[in-house]
Design goal:
Elements: H1 3-16, E1 31-34, E2 39-42, H2 57-71, E3 79-83, H3 89-102, E4 108-112, H4 120-127, E5 134-138, H5 148-158, E6 169-175, H6 194-206, E7 210-214, H7 219-232, H8 239-249, H9 254-267
Parallel strand pairs: 1-4, 3-6, 3-7, 4-5, 5-6
Antiparallel strand pairs: 1-2
Helix pairs in contact: 2-3, 5-6, 7-9
Length: 272
């Protein structure tokens, strides 16, 4: 077989199986996204000001303290942020990273889509190549009955598995469920060791050393959040109108408050 033929075969094989895409410089950017195959930089990382997140002071304090320890290379927990939708769970994760970066801490956010959980060992292998602290953000995590196997796999990655997360990575996970996987009253009636059924479902949430609950807002807290956002944009607002906005949407939350302020800004000819 001639050298020319070997070269042609090698080139054909490369076209059939191209090399993996290159990953972004892990020291150069404030935030990244993992797509299951490669790490992509997020250059325009502009989270909400941490101070604007109102009505969740205790949760913010605990999250900031834990994140500061991780940024400094000290012992820190994986964190589960659970509770009602729109209450600031996701915003708090991005904002706390932005706050630490503004303070001069060399920490970065890495977001991974929920449907890419199976690829986390590959991501962990890449992150072991740097000493920079990372917060791996899994947003809106929840497993149905058929996904309990995936929950067990994630449990292994958090603690004790052969492909467990590296020391410079902590997982920050948001979920609408306190225990991430669904629970039912019928569990108590399971004839085959019902306690084992409950323990297995709670085992994933138990892997998080810090669990922070986010609850639905009362009216005063909702109006206070609207006021904080409006003040940031130098906007006057009518509290009754803000309350009516929330009533029409069937929810009082930080997300609804921000949506009202965006609408108010638009009516006043401002951009946000």
């Amino acid at each position: 077989m001639t050298d020319a033929l070997l070269i042609r075969i090698a080139e054909a094989l490369e076209r059939l199986a191209p090399p993996p895409p290159s990953c972004a410089d892990l020291a150069a950017f404030p935030a990244y996204v993992w797509d299951g195959r490669a790490i992509h930089a997020v250059e325009a990382f502009a989270p909400v000001d941490y101070a604007l997140l109102t009505g969740i002071d205790a949760q913010k304090g605990a999250l900031l303290d834990n994140s500061r320890r991780h940024a400094a290379g000290h012992a820190a927990h994986d964190v589960l942020l659970w509770g009602a939708r729109g209450t600031g769970k996701s915003a708090a994760v991005a904002s706390v990273v932005g706050l630490l970066q503004a303070e001069g801490q060399d920490i970065a956010l890495m977001q991974c889509a929920i449907d890419e959980l199976a690829s986390l060992p590959a991501l962990f292998a890449l992150l072991r190549g740097t000493t920079r602290p990372f917060i791996l953000f899994l947003d809106d995590l929840g497993f149905e009955e058929q996904g309990v196997g995936d929950a067990r796999a994630l449990r292994s990655l958090l603690q004790g598995g052969t492909a467990a997360r590296p020391a410079n990575v902590r997982l920050y996970v948001t979920s609408n469920r306190r225990h991430i996987v669904p629970r039912h009253l019928s569990e108590q009636d399971d004839p085959i060791n019902p306690r084992d059924v409950v323990d297995d479902k709670m085992a994933l949430s138990d892997r998080f050393g810090l669990s922070l609950g986010f609850h639905a807002l009362d009216q005063d807290a909702y109006v206070a959040i609207v006021g904080g956002y409006a003040a940031k944009l130098d906007l006057a607002f009518d509290p009754l109108e803000a309350i009516q906005w929330a009533t029409q949407r069937g929810s009082r939350s930080g997300r609804v408050a921000w949506q009202y302020v965006v609408d108010l800004a638009g009516r006043n000819g401002l951009s946000v």
